[in-house]
Amino acid sequence: MSDMERGSLTPEEEILSQRMDKLRRLREEEGYDPYVNESWGVKHTLAEVRRDHDDISVDESREDVSLSVAGRLMTVRKQGKASFANMQDETGSMQLYFRLDSMGEECYRFFKKWIDAGDIIGVEGHPFRTRRGELTIAVTRCVLLSKALRPLPEKWHGLTDTEVRYRKRYVDLMVNPEVRDVFRQRARIISSVRKTLEDHGTLEVETPMLSYLAGGANARPFVTHHNALDLDMYLRIATELHLKRLVVGMMGRVYEMGKNFRNEGMDAMHNPEFTAMEVYWPYCDYVDMMDLTEEIVRKAALDATGSTTVTWQGTELDLGKPFRRATMVELVKEHCGVDFDGIDDDNEARRIAEGEGLALEGDESRFKVLTMMVEEFVEEHLVQPTFVMGHPTEISPLSKRNPDNPDYTHRFELFVCGSEVANGFSELNDPIDQRARFEDQAKLKAAGDEEGHPFDEDFVNALEQGLPPTGGLGIGIDRLIMFLTDSRSIRDVILFPTMKPKA
Fold it and tell me: Is residue 30 marked as binding?
């Protein structure tokens, strides 16, 4: 490459070019290919080395201990006959000490000439503590296992550009150990949820991600095409309808943890591809599901953090005490001073809402107005865990009616810090009522509501076979993880969030 060509390169491209040249020379001059090593006998993680030898005193050297570790060099400080480096593996980091007398001339020469920050190496040696008090591995043998052609970020200890972090998660994980910790916590939270459900005798199942209908929620689906059947199909927006079919089929308590897909907006709380858990228990109701929700959240907090008190973005959340339970009507009365129990006219409801500053189209029912007022004026104030109950029937097509007031349902949503985390209800098991509600939703869909629920004839047929009284619950796993790991955005808890391609 000419000097003129080099002058047009970015700093990263310049290093890439230099590393490519070094790789070529390494192969030609040394006959060494760093990509053909099949295995390195890792006998210890860096965390194990620190655990087993942290009691070493200053200037003590345990030459009788033989260590074999591997990892990525994060920094290298090459000097004359002695050099230092910092190595990191998946468990932690540690200083390495390279010395000509200990390694031998050929091995030390190879290290100095060919190995750079970012490279993955295997190391043999013994532990000691420097005069400055740092636990260190004195290297006796070093093998280059993989040559890194691209450089680490300039400040390897902190890649802060969120756009780069999400697009190049592999770099983010490499240089930000706290990000790796979040995803380890994510795994513990998911394991905790599974264990809680399985301790209650709940069977984990798998249902289709592709379906002829996108049902189980009011949301806009992704559409794809099945070539062999010449048929449009949908990525699932929820697992609900298939899981309830299993309850009809006498599978007992069932749950599914998996991906759902909704073709909607993206923000700090929404990603088109997300993880949800849905569970259905026959012979239970929405009160049982609220109790289960509390248990799941509380145990997940304990398993992930060791405490039922967590902090999210500066707000302390007490997950140890019973979660508040209040109806939508009660909450609007509390926050807006409007009592919907005394409103039985749609025009009056719209007039009151407009007086509160709510923008309306003019044809909303009083139940729709109630819902809008909760969304606009109440949800942001629901900081501590709160079950919002008593949803109108017209916005809850799969929930059982309240027999004392059929305009409302036995449904709840759990809110934390103003965001919905869970949704559950006593499942509608009356096939005649279900058919009528599907018909109402189909009319909305025909009128242009892209989130209207489609008519699912087979699901109605399943209900006609007999669905026992059933309690159902859905939890947004990503949001739950956000609150338990103090993560600001849903993208911080999804390894590879959806991103718009770079131009």
Answer: no
